[in-house]
Amino acid sequence: MKIEQIYTGCLAHAAYYLESNGEAAVFDPLREVQPYINRAKLDDAKIKYIFETHFHADFVSGHLDLKNKTGADIVFGPTAKPNYEAIVAEDGQVFEVGAYKVKVIHTPGHTMESTTYLLIDENGEEHGIITGDTLFIGDVGRPDLAQKVVAELTQEKLASHLYDSLRNKIMPLSDDLIVYPNHGAGSACGKNMSKETTDTLGNQKKTNYALRADMTKEEFIEEVLAGLTEPPGYFPQNVMMNIKGYESFDKVMIKSQNPLSPRAFEVAANETEAIVLDVRRHEDFIKGHIPRSIFIGMDGNFAPWVGALIVDVTQPILLVIPRGREEEVVTRLSRVGFDNVVGYLDGGFDAWKNEGMEYDTITSISAHEFAKIYEDNKDNIFDVRREGEYRAEHVNLAKLTPLDYLNNYLSEFPEDETFYLHCAGGYRSVIAASILKSRGIHNLVDVAGGYGAIRKTDVPTTDYVCPSTLK
Questions:
Q1: Identical fold, 247-351 and 364-469
Q2: Of 49, 112, 192, 376, which has fewest CB within 10 angstroms of its CB?
Q3: How far, CA to CA in Å, does 186 sit from each of 96, 136, 302?
């Protein structure tokens, strides 16, 4: 069967392209759709269907633009209620793509419209399942997202539906089927996903904790909900964009790539109340940046951090970008619904500095320098990693202030004493430093290289802390 996984690492997202006899289908496309159109052209094929497994929360799907550009029909599973023309399929309905068949299997739980698509080849043999966020490799979709949109859909109710879907719809299928999920490790749509992006269903039945044969529904609900952190704040907004529709990606690209001189950039910042978002390397941001700008480097886990920290997708944004990467940054922002880019600094930060404009820096020290001052400053060390990382191993006496929820911890940072920030490798601590400085907190020092560098020194560490001792 001719099926291709198109994986985008920064979002840990997998779309799928299916082709047979000059007809093609795309499953869960990203916002920029030209790559799918180009792929079909290579096969001299016409895209016939755009299958959506559910209304996505972590990205804005490209289904509407792809339909407008190709004439393909959008297909959702049962109970979906999109605000635009689409086929809402029935459970068990079959769609033909060339000699292949795609069978709809309604699998509510992650969301109520969540649907798995069974792929059947030209010989009538079942080949695989495109599972969306119902079943991942090593995990299942978190059942707490839909309640952010529909309050009565509690996470317990959704987990109960997910248990039934897995037991009654997925697990009875053949062990030989290949599982094609929508996400891999790094996505916030699950909690324990594997780095592998495909597997056989039979192996998942053996190794995936949520598919344990003797698991009761009560045990499933408890285990699936255990350890879930608060989902990123932008998720409900992306869901609504996917339900209601959105502005064309092409229009977003045109209006957003607006070069501004340093003086015009400053005026725009004052007039629009835009956030100045600096996406350069964190080492460059440390050396110099526009005062009160927020750093989220594009070479890290860029778009999810923007969504988690800026949250409001309608927020006006001004960009400081390395030259030549403007289109890439705007594209990656649009993937998570941030379409209100006012413009970017023409010539980058060098132009700002050469114009004689005011700029700021971050004090940063090496891990070896940190080791020398640790004993005298051990009460003022802040770890901005996630709780799981902190629990596994951390600097002795360091306080946990996760970057994801930094605003909840602002009162804990000392007002009159120098304090020290670190993460795992240096990226997140600079994000945290930029946020704190934008709020007027400047008495901070970044530890370059983060915990990875610190643990190579003689700074004392703690290997494990009981969750009950954490806030």
A1: yes
A2: 376
A3: 33, 12, 12
Distances (CA, A) of 224 to 41, 131, 280, 302: 42, 17, 37, 27
> Would the pLDDT of 468 be above 80?
no
CATH 3.40.640.10 fits 364-469, yes or no: no
What values do phi and psi take at 305, rounded to 5? Answer: -70, -40
Query: To which residue do tokens 């080849």 refer?
Result: 121
pLDDT tens by residue, 58-67: 999 999 999 9
Intra-chain end-to-end CA distance of the chain, in Å: 51
59: nearest Cα among 188, 157, 151, 153: 188
CA distances from 380 to 441, 466, 471 (A): 14, 21, 17
Q: What residues does each domain of the chain span? A: 3-237, 247-351, 364-469
Helix (H, G, I), strand (E, B) or coil at 423: coil
Report the predicted TM-score, pTM, of the whole model to 2 decimal places: 0.92
What tokens were used for 3?
Answer: 């099926």
- HEC string of 189-205 equals CCCCCCCCCCEEHHHHH
d(CA 358, CA 276): 14
* Chain segment 272-324, per-residue pLDDT in tens: 999 999 999 999 999 999 999 999 999 988 999 999 999 899 999 999 999 99
Quick one: which H or E segment has residue 155?
Answer: helix 155-165
Q: State whether CATH 3.40.250.10 applies to domain 247-351.
A: yes
Q: CA 310, CA 233: separation in Å to the nearest integer? A: 9
